[in-house]
TrEMBL record:
Residues 18-37 are annotated as: Disordered. The keyword ATP-binding applies. InterPro entries: AAA+_ATPase, ABC_transporter-like_ATP-bd, ABC_transporter-like_CS, ABCG_dom, P-loop_NTPase, Plant_ABCG. This is ABC transporter domain-containing protein. CDD domains: ABCG_EPDR (cd03213). Belongs to the ABC transporter superfamily. ABCG family. Eye pigment precursor importer (TC 3.A.1.204) subfamily. Residues 47-291 form the ABC transporter domain. It comes from Vitis rotundifolia (Muscadine grape).
Amino acid sequence: MAASALQSSPSHFEIEYDSASMQSHNPKTRKPREVVGSDGEDGGVFLTWEDLWVTVSNGKSGSRSILQGLTGYARPGEVLAIMGPSGCGKSTLLDALAGRLGSNTSQSGIILVNGHKQALSYGTSAYVTQDDTLITTLTVGEAVYYSALLQLPDSMSKSKKKERADMTIREMGLQDAINTRIGGWGVKGISGGQKRRVSICIEILTHPRLLFLDEPTSGLDSAASYYVMSRIASLDRQHGRTIITSIHQPSSEVFALFDNLCLLSSGRTVYFGPAHAADEFFSSNGFPCPTHQNPSDHFLKTINKDFEEDIEQGFGGKKSKEEAIDILTKAYKSSDNFQQVQTQVSEIYKQDGGALKKRSHASFLNQCLVLTRRSFVNMYRDLGYYWLRLAIYFALTVALGTIFHNVGYSYSSIKVRNTQRVL
Ligand SMILES: Nc1ncnc2c1ncn2[C@@H]1O[C@H](COP(=O)(O)OP(=O)(O)OP(=O)(O)O)[C@@H](O)[C@H]1O
């Protein structure tokens, strides 16, 4: 990435769009993007899943289906948002697609990458998990830089890696916190929202062609959520990356950034299709979004059955949440959207996208060196990990040493030493 690009990159949360990308933010006028591949490499990643079931075994109490026959697709240059009430299976769907399901789960159905059954090779995909697993003693800049050293190939110079790290930090609006420690238990550092952004930085450093994000905006205020999501969306539009994100409560501005929407309730699809057409789908089935209400709030309110509250159906009086979900799932199964999803999936099957190429990363030796250095920095700064341990070992040494203090070198002293050793 050119240094000039770094210098000219926008200041805190100011994002510059050219007219084409601005236009692309209007979901109704957005055109399918040309797939150019990331970093000038081979084309994008098409992901399809058909009749996907995920079952979890609960030991003696039997098994439970978390996902029930989901079908869908994600295409390069598009953002697919997975939405639904808490516990509906959003993270499970992401995990299943990314091949990260736990050992007590089993899955059936077909998941294809570029029309082939193949594993996601190194560097092709990245996954931003819901929990931030960061080294608390490092500063934001260090955390991202070490990650760049570990992930990017040896053929890239250190200065380029530093540039990439700095650029990514700027893109996530973290430049003001670059020298602040991440912090954790007992040590105040950056805020929860900033930690979220550091986690995203670390994952997008390698410019993966397929990006999974699990609740990327949790802990962010609405402005930060918008800037972070729009940054991710606009970058990926430019490079033809495929983004699949689960999200809880997008503002209407964030919602407008999504191309497709997968709405789940208790592991079943309530809606899959263009995000901008979801409103029409709900209206036509008797659940119109009230004026001045955020459509995504309305969708979630309608399909959340955790709280018993009847919902107004435009032409059928009040309906229980169960009934509303039933109406919508059945309506989806018989809708044009469902047919279009099936058509899209079979069209993607026919495309021969080819096998994914593995990207190179830092060599084993380099990774060992970077990890050792990072570990020393961490130990040096962590009072509990390093200094207290040192004090304990010192006290132990002194305590053990005093056992033999002034024992002498005579025959009887040797006997005493042996007795002390046995003791
Ligand atoms: N490995 C597992 N073992 C047992 N239960 C599981 C497992 N994975 C998921 N579940 C259950 O499946 C359901 C869906 O979980 P999941 O994490 O996918 O929901 P979610 O929609 O992402 O929720 P949230 O929005 O709260 O993160 C939950 O009831 C969860 O307890």
